Amino acid sequence: MIENIELQWLRCFQAVYEKLSFKEAAEQLQLPTSNVSRHVALLERQLNVRLLERTTRKMNPTSAGKQLYQSIAPLARAMDHALEEVSRYGDSLSGHLKIITPDLPFMADILADFCLRHPQIQLSCDTQLDPSEGLLEGFDLVLRFGRGALEDSGWVARELLRWPSCVVAAPELLGQHPLPRSLGELSQAPCITSLSVLQGMPWRFKPDQTVQVRSSYKVNSGHMARAAALKGLGFAILPVHACHADIDSGALVKVELDREPEDLVLYAFYSGGTYPRVKVKAFLEHLRLGLADLDAGSQP
Predict the structure, then answer these.
(1) Helix, strand, coil % (nearest 5) of the chain?
(2) Does the domain spanning 2-86 belong to CATH 1.10.10.10?
(3) Orientation of helix 7-19 relative to helix 63-87, angle to 10°
(4) pTM across the whole model
(5) Which of 58, 113, 158, 239 has its CA 20 to 30 A from that of 166?
(6) How far apart are CA 37 and CA 12, in angstroms?
(7) How does pLDDT run across 97-130, given as a tens digit for each residue?
């Protein structure tokens, strides 16, 4: 049977299964959509079984499709890993490196320098703050912020940067609302929260303490949260380095509570194999060296 199956057919089926879209699978594989559709159709014809149910609105895998994917996905990862291990004996790093990262200023130079150093690497980089679990499929490395304990997942998490944080408020806000001294008092005050990143709410404090706060201003940006805090729209949790100048000038007041906020941490997530893939391992080392050179005042 195997001699009648093309590897490209299986790769296309795997991508379509993960994306549930011929168009998105084609973009991932950098192939025309018509080619991907034809390869899946040829695979189904050779196996004489329907693998994917297509309608004008959605696509769903059949029982046979689920069984085939569960069988070939580990084999494909093992084969890819084996080829990359062998490539270590060559003169240069090569392959397609797919990354999701927040749009951080310092990441632009780090990524460009890595590709300049390894010209055989093909880079695909998507900038997102809150990638969903399903979107992680097909990516080699995901950089994401976290605050407090991480949720369990099949990905390995490596800490890259850690920023101590504090609760701040503008003097104008403190003229309208009493200065909170406890998490209970903070829960009654207007706050600026994230819309979806960092698990939105509740706010997280050390050690493993949470508080549900009131918020009518939600943004997925530290810069926007700082701007809103300066305008007196609510209390905010910000990295200390991002607001220390405002605290020193009196534009913001640091709120001393009975608990400290959890640190803001930038994590790298990669596949949970025993070892990271060669290209991922090389990029993580390059990233580590690049971050080590960052000025302590760099902002997320």
Answers:
(1) 40, 25, 35
(2) yes
(3) 120
(4) 0.65
(5) 158
(6) 8
(7) 889 998 888 899 999 999 999 998 999 998 876 6
